Amino acid sequence: MLLPRFDQRVCFSLANFIAGPSSSVRLHRPLPLLPRRRYARRIDLATAECAAGFISGPALEEDDGDHGYRLPPKEIQEIVDVPLNPSYYISPRRDRIMFLKRRTMLPLSELVKPDKILAGIRIDPSSNTRSRMSFYTGISIYLLMDDGTLGPEKVVNGYNDNAKINFVGWSPDGQHLVFTVRYEDEVDNGSNLALWIADAESGKARPLFKSADIMLNAIFELYVWVNNSCLLVCTVPSSRGDPPRKQLVPFGPRIRSNEQRSIIQMRSTKEMLKDLHEEELFDYYATSQIVLVTLDGTVNMIALPAIYISLDPSPDGKYLMLTSVHRPYSSIVSYKRFPKKVELWTVEGRFVREVCDLPLAEDIPVAANSVRKGKRLIRWRPDMPSTLYWVEAQDGGDANVEVSPRDIVYMEHAEPLDGEKPQVLLKLDLRYRKSYWCYGSFALVYEYWYKTRITRTWVISPDLKNNRPRLLFERSSEDAYSNPGSPVMCRTPSGTLVIARIKRNCEGSYILLKGRGATPKGSTPFLDLFNVNTGEKERIWESDKEKYYESVLALISYHPKCEVQLDQLKLLVSKESRREITQYYVKIWPDEKQVQITNYPHPYPQLALLQKEIIRYQRTDGVKLTATLYLPPGYSPSEDGPLPCLIWSYPGEFKSKEAAGQVRRSPNKFARINNKFPLLWLARGFAILADPTIPIIGEGNQEGNDRYIEQLIASAEAAVNEIVRRGVAHPDKIAVGGHSYGAFMTANLLAHAPHLFCCGIARSGAYNRTLTPFGFQKETRTLWEATDTYIKMSPFMSANKIKKPILLIHGEDDSKVTTAMQSSQFYDALKGHGVPCRLVILPFEQHQYAARESIMHIIWETDRWLQKYCATNPGNIRDMETNVDTPQSPTDAVLDHEALSLNFTKISSLIKLIQLAFSQIVFRK
C-alpha cells in the first residue's frame, strides 16, 4: 500500500516514536518533506489540526547525545565548500601580479597540534611560528602588459604539491619573491619551516639557506628585504638547546603585590604569562638571532640574540632599526606592553645608538585614546634615505588629562650631529593617528579624539624651515557622507609607500583621493583629483550607480619618483554587481579603457538569482535605520506569502542620530556568502535581514549604554515591523542571531523583547558584564563607575526573563573577554530557569572558528535550531500551506522531521493509520 505523502511522513515519525529510544528497531531514513506551496492551497482543517497535535509537545528524537561532528544539509554544504578565489599581490614596480591560491578552511588537525600560549600569543613549537596559521597552496605570476592584459602564467615550482605557503613577499625590484614552505608531517631538526626564494621570470624556486642547520624563528617578524639582493631574517640561535622543563616541586608561591598603590586597570583577558616557567618558555621560543643573508645564501650575523618583534631597514638600506622586548615581564599584559628597546645598527653590524628603552606599561588607563608613555610609533620617513619620526604624548598617555598640546610629532636623522636636537614637526591637541608622506614636498598628518569623534587632517612641509601646518579637513569621523577619502599611494624603488604626485599639464600639486562615496542612496566609490595647495578638487572617476559597484584597489602606473602624468594613469579596480562576482580590471587613462584580467565563475549558481535590497526605515525616536534584505530566488511575497526569517546583526555606538542614520552600504555589491554568515539559509528558504543598524547613541555628554536596552529594543522592533509590513516575514517565525557583541545583543533581545522573536542563535558572546569590570566594546567607564549600566546590560542578570529557545555556541579556547565560561555560566542560569537552550562548546576553537569540522557542525546546529524553532514554529500551523502538485526541496519544509512531536491523547482518530504504518514500514521484511 502506498500511503499519501503526508501520511508517510507522519507514520514514519510515529513508528520511531513507538519503537522508543531503547528499541533496536530504529529508522533514520530522512522523510520526504511537506511541499511548501508554490504556493497555493492550504492543508484542510482536519489535517492542520492533526499536525498541530504533532508539534505541540516535546520535539521528537531530541538530539542531545554526543554524535560527533555533524554535516549540514547538502544544499548548504555545496555553498560552504566552494573554493576561495585567489588573493592578489602586485609587484613594487607594478609590472607583475601574483595570485595566491587559498584553502577554504583549515582541517581540525591544524588546531589540535600542541602549542604554547605565552604572553598573549599562541606558538607552534614544531615550526617556531604562530600556531593555527592559514596558508596558501600555490603561486602564479603574470606580467602586466602595457595594454592592461596579462602575459603568460608562470607557476612557481620546485616545492612539493602538499606544501603550505606563508610569508610571501616581493623583492623591492620585483625580480624575486620569498616565501616559507612547511609540510604537514615533516619535521627536520626540530622545525618544518623553510625559507624559499623564487625567480619571478622563470618561477623556479629553491631554499634560500644552504645549511639545513639554520632554523627560522617566525614568532614575530620573520624577514624583511634590506635591498634587492639581501634580507634580514630571524633565526633560532644555534646555542638553543631543549625547552626548559617545569619543576615538579614549585620554587615557591605565586605572589602579586600592589603595596605601592599603583592604579592599574586592565580589561579582562587571558593567555598571559602565569609563572616563572612560562617566562622561561617565552624566552626560549621568542629569542632570535638576526642574520643578513644574500640571494646566494651567504649568511652574516647581526647584533646579539634577543626577542626581536620588529625589523625595519632604512629606505636607503644603510641602517637597521631593531625593536625588542625584555624583562621584567608581566602576568597581566601581553608582550606588546613589555619593556621595549629600539636600537639602530648599520647593515654591516655596527651598533649606532639606542633610540629608546621604554619601561613596562601595565598602567595605561582604560579610557579611549590613552597610550604608552615615551616615544611611540617610531618609523622611518618613507620619502627620505634615513630619517626617523615618532610621537610623544604630553599628557602622560592619559586621555583623562586635559593638556595642550596632547601629542607632539618629532623628526631626527639616524645619526644626528653632536648637540643636534629632534625637530618638532607638529603639535596636536588631539591624539595622533597616522601620517602619509609625499617625497619631502608635504605630508598629511591625522589626529583624532574618540569622545567627540573629531578628526583633523593637517598639511605640513617637513623640510621647510618655515613649516606652518595648515588644517586641510576637520570633520566627524562618524560622518560617512563628508569623508574626503584617502590618498592613493605609490611604491618607491626602495619598496616604501608614499603619496603619488599627479601632474596635470605640469601645474599645481595634485594628489588622488579615493573614497567609498557614502550617500543616502548607497555607496558610490570615487576618485578625486585634489589640489593640496588650494583645496580644490575635481572628480575624475566615479563608480557606476545603477548596476555595478566598482572600487579602486591600487595604482599600477610606476615612476621612480612617484610622479604620474594624469593622462597616463593606470589603476587596478574591482567590479561587481548584485549577481556578478567580483572581477579585476585594469583601467587606463585618458579614455578610461577597462581591461578585464580575471574571469571567476559564479561560486553558487543555485543562488545566482537571489534577491537583494537595501531597505530604509526608522525607529520610534526618529532615527533612520538601514538593513540589507535578501530573499530566495523566485520568491514573491504576494504569491508565496511570508517566509521564516533570520535577522543577524551587531550593535554600533554613535554620538549623533544623523551619523547613525547614514547609509554605509551599496545595493550593487555582490552577495558574498561565507561560512559564518547567515546568507547560507537562503538555500533553506529563509528571508535574511543582514546587518540592520542597531545604533546605541549617546549625544553630547550622554553615555549611549545608559539607554542600551531601550535603544536596542527600538531598533529591533523597527526592523521586525518593516519586514512584516513588506509581507516577507511571518511575525511568529523571526529568529535573531549574532556573533560576539551580536550574541550579547541576541540574548538581550530575547530577555527584553520576547514578543519579537521565536528563537535566537548566540555565538561567542559575553553575557555577564560584571566579569568585564574595566570596560567592554566602547564603554570606558568601569563597573564601579556605572554599576547600574553594567548590571542592566547583562543578559545573565535577566536569565529568568528569557522564555524563547536560545542556541549558545562558543570556542573552548576563546582568549578574549568572551571566554567560554561566559556561555557556560549563562547556559546554567538559563537551564536553572527552565529555558529551552542548548550549549555547544567547540574544542580547540578560539573567538573566530577556523576548522572545517567545527564550522560544518555549527551550521548543522544552527540549521537544526532554525528548522525546529523557527521554520516549524508551532504557533503558526494555521498558516502552513501546500500544493501537492508541486515538487519541493528541503528548503521549503514546513514540518521538519526533528521538529515533529505528538500527543497520543489528541490523535485517537489515527490509530488505524498508525497500525498500518507499523505493520508495513517497521516490520516489513
TrEMBL record:
The keyword Nuclease does not apply. This is Probable glutamyl endopeptidase, chloroplastic. InterPro entries: 6-blade_b-propeller_TolB-like (IPR011042), AB_hydrolase_fold (IPR029058), Peptidase_S9_cat (IPR001375). Belongs to the peptidase S9D family. Serine-type protease active in vitro against the LHCII N-terminal. Cleaves its substrate on the carboxy-side of Glu residues. Keywords: Chloroplast, Hydrolase, Plastid, Protease, Serine protease, Transit peptide. GO terms for biological process: proteolysis. It is found in: Plastid, Chloroplast stroma. One of its GO terms (molecular function) is serine-type peptidase activity. Residues 717-870 form the Peptidase S9 prolyl oligopeptidase catalytic domain. GO terms for cellular component: chloroplast stroma.
